[in-house]
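Predict the 3D structure for this chain.
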Amino acid sequence: MVIDWQRVAIFGAGTLLGVTLGAGAALLFAPKSGRATRRDLARRGRRWRSRTTDAWDDLRDGLHFAARRGRRKLERAIRDRWQRRDQEQEQPALVD
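Done. Predicted structure below.
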């Protein structure tokens, strides 16, 4: 599969233009003044940042927990393998 970069660029430029025009129209036809709209947007931005920060913190904590659990499981498996190997070496060989 070959990527046609010219089409990708045209699509990206069209998307950017659409977003820009949509944002401009939203600001022009907004029911609030510019100051109130900016205040609301800032408030929403802070709220969104707080939520995403909390989500990333939860993800980080979950990954740390999973890593610790995996490390302990691996250490236990290695320790058990070494113990089995030591027990096998201590047992006398049966001679017929």
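DSSP finds two helices and no strands in the chain.
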